[in-house]
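#onboarding

Welcome to the new folks! Below is a worked example of what a typical request in this channel looks like: someone posts a single protein sequence, and someone else replies with the predicted structure as tokens. Don't worry about understanding the tokens yet, we'll cover that in week two.

Example request:
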Amino acid sequence: MTDQPGNPGETGADVLCDTLLANDVDVCFANPGTSEMHFVAALDRKPAMRCVLGLFEGVVSGAADGYARMAGKPAATLLHTGPGMANAMANMHNARRANTPMVNVVGDHASYHLPYDAALTSDIDTLARPMSGHVRRIAGVEDVSPATAESVAAAMSAPGTVSTLILPANFAWGAAPQGAPAKAQLRAPTRVDEDRLAAAASALRDGKKTLILMTGTALREAPLEDAHRIAAATGADLLAQQANARLERGGSRVALNRVPYPIDQALEVLKVYERVILVGAKAPVGFFAYPGKPSSLLPEGCEILTLADPSDDLPGALDALAQAVGAKPVPKPQIAAIPDLASGKLTPETIAITVGHHLPDNAIVCDESVTSGRDFFRFTYGAASHDWLQLTGGAIGVGLPLATGAAIACPDRKVVALQADGSGMYTNQALWTMARENLDVCIVIFANRRYAILHGELKGVGAGEAGENARRMLDFDEPSLDWVKIAGGMGVEAARAETAEGFTELFKRAAKTRGPFLIEAMI
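Example response:
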């Protein structure tokens, strides 16, 4: 019977937890409701599972994204029926674009209760599909373990995806069959195709102006070394695509730039290339359509070759290409020194310079600075070694949750969140989770009190300057946000910086002390 609760330790929910743990999923970011109470009770019996509460489902999914990008394995989320999952979907979208492994456990009404169309009844399966690479509804208590293992396998199989597992309440509380938890059968990355490898190697010998465009695991330290050797041997240039899940930078690592976000800058950078070789990346396109401007950012007639798809072994593909073109170890080019620390007016540039000088070694930077951070790379090539995590899908509100998840994945590393104030308001509840978990995060709020990116886009699409009505939709200075008070109300220590010197002192302090600390940078 599945309409009667099983004994503690013998429920479907226990089996689900045991199967997650057996497959090395041992963190659960949660915002549960009534349908998930038996899963909550099962989690209470599983001390090996770390449970982290988020006060909004977008925090939950964004934190799971940040965790997986740094841990290299999925976290679980616990979400309450269709509406709860709907609150999580923007950051599920960002995670899907990042190829992040994630296992969403979404509670649903008991299967026999669904025909009564209670208030929270919705088509969870259909809602989940656009933001998930895999969707599975558990069909019975005996299906819990195999369905869970299948969901983990889908999430972890190369290149990684968002996997959504729907758990009807009666299959959570039902008495479970005995047996060992099912094991996930993962699909490993595929080796580079020999024909593609030969075509890329041949193309790099013909003298055409060529760009190697990379993303994914190609942006880790060792494959970047291989890419640098290939570029030195062939004369090709290197770029990362515009948005990337994780890029290893700083220290002695290869300095790599990205395709610019503004369309005119991107067109200018890419206009010289006759060929692009893709390594896990997509051919670059405009973030939006703009009147009178092309969707493709590549010049007309530019040849596109694919060395490796996202599901391929990207480091292996670059290693094979380096061997095919006879690339040898070469010294890295000199990186321009970070400018001296500025004084006086606080600007995005002076913030970038301070971060470049004082970023702790082995830090993790979570970047949702949006307009204010577009020039940050220029001032941080010479910083200490760090990982750079970006907004990947364009759905704002991921920065603070991303930092939360990254800090839980890497408790021994300082996390720096570069956060625009407007998008920070989407998920400011993440500050409370940082305080509760005592996470080592320095949050820098770029407080320009406006959606600066939308002022630019208004002009970029040819719609002109903002008048009074438009300004009231794009600015939030009446009343002004007070991030020091917002952070204090969430339990996070905070201070305001109004000058370059003031910001430097606060950032140096935050870099050297543990625990969450927020700097409201008035730019």
